[in-house]
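Supplementary Note 3. Input sequence used for the single-chain structure prediction.
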Amino acid sequence: MDNFFDALKMLGEENSVETEILIEKVKSAMLKAAKRAYPHSEDRIRVEIDPTENKFAMYIVQEIIDDEPIDENEINIEAAKTIDPNAVVGGTILKEIDISKLGRMAALSAKQSIKGDLREINREQMLNKFEKKEHDCIIAKVSQIEQGRGTVTLLYEGTELYLFKNEQIPGEVFEEGKSVKVYITGIVGKTKKPIVKISRTHKDLVKRLFEMEVPEIYDGIVEVKSISREAGSRTKIAVWSKDENVDAVGACIGTKRARISAVVNELSGEKIDIIPWNSDPRVFVAKALAPAEVLKTVITSVEEKNCTVVVPNNQLSLAIGNKGQNAKLAAKLTGYKIDIKPQTNPLTGEPAPELAEGFSDTYDLQLKEALEASEKALTTETEAAQEIDAVPENAEVPEIEDAAENPVIKANSEESSDAGANEASEETADGEDI
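The predicted structure, written as C-alpha cells, is reproduced below.
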C-alpha cells in the first residue's frame, strides 16, 4: 500500500496536481470500477483513501437483518456481531471489498478514468494559466535546444512551451538556462488539448516590450498607433501622445536612449524607427519614410489609399531602402501604397510635376468638398430656422382640409399674379375631380 501512495504522490508532481485533488479523482475512478463489479450495490459502495494513515479501502454498506441474506447488500445479525458486537437488526455494517478481486477489466477502466481526469485537469490548468495572458508577453526560461530542427523548449511556471524555428528572430542564438521574452499569439485546441503558440517575430511583441520599458505607454498617456516589422532587421512604430506636454517619441527613446536600447537588446539588435503619428496622411507618410527626407506628399486616391512622394535625388535609394524594405515598412505602417519619385528627372533634369504650384491633390480636393458640403448644410439649416422665426407665434396652424378657407392663404393669393392665380385655380379644380 505504501507503493500506491508513493506512486500517487509522484503522479501529482508530474502533472502539477495537488494530492487532494488527485485522491478525489482516484476515488471516483475506483467507485466506477466497483459499481461495475457489484452492479446491485451501486448506492452502497464506499471508497476511503487517507494518505496520512496510508489507508486505501473499499466497502459495501450492508443492512443487518435477522433472516437469511438475499445478496451482498444484507448480512445476518449473527454474522454482523462477529464484526461489530454492538450490531443491531435494522442497522448497517461495512463489509470490506478485496480490491484485488475487482478484476482486470475493472482495473483497466479505473486506469483509463484516472488518465481522462488528469487530461481534463491539465487542460483546465493550462487555460487558467494562459488564457488571461493570450496576446501578451511572458518571460520564460530556455530548457532545451533541439539542434536539428532548431525548436527551443521553454519553461514557464512548470509548463513546457515550444518556440519553433519560424517564430524565432533570424540569426538569434539561445542558451540553456537563459530567460527570454516571448509573445503568446494564441491558444489552439481549447476544448481538447490546449497548445500555447508563442512567437519572437510577431510585431505586437515590440509593442509589449515598449509597454514594459515606457511607463507613459503602460499608463495610456502615449498610444501606439501602428507597427510594421521585419523581424531581425527593422521595425517602425508610430506613437502619439494624448498629453500635449508629453513628447511621445522622446518618451519611447528615454534618457540617453535607455528605453529604446533595452528593447533593441531584447530583439538581438533589431533597428527600430520611432515615428510620430499624425492625423494628416501626407505628414504621416512623410514621417514614416524616415530617415529619408520628403519634399512633398500627394494623395492621389483617398479611397484606394494611394499616394506619391517626392524626395531629393540623393535620397531616393535611402527612401526605398535595401530591397525596398524602408518603403514596404512605411506602407504597412501607414496603410498607404507609396509611389516614390525623385525631385528631378535624372535624364531631362526637369522637376517632378508634383512639385509644381497648384498641382492637384485628391486629399486637398476632398477636404475642400467636405468643407463646402458642411457650409452648405449649415446655410440650409440657417435659412430653415429663419423661415420658422418669420411665422407669428400666435398664428393658428390650419387643418389640411380647411386650407382653402385660411385667411393667410387668401391674402397671399390676392397679392400673387393673375397667371399664378389661374394656375392655382386649375390645380384646385383637378384636386376636386379626384
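The CA atoms of residues 304 and 366 lie 13 Å apart. The radius of gyration is 41 Å.
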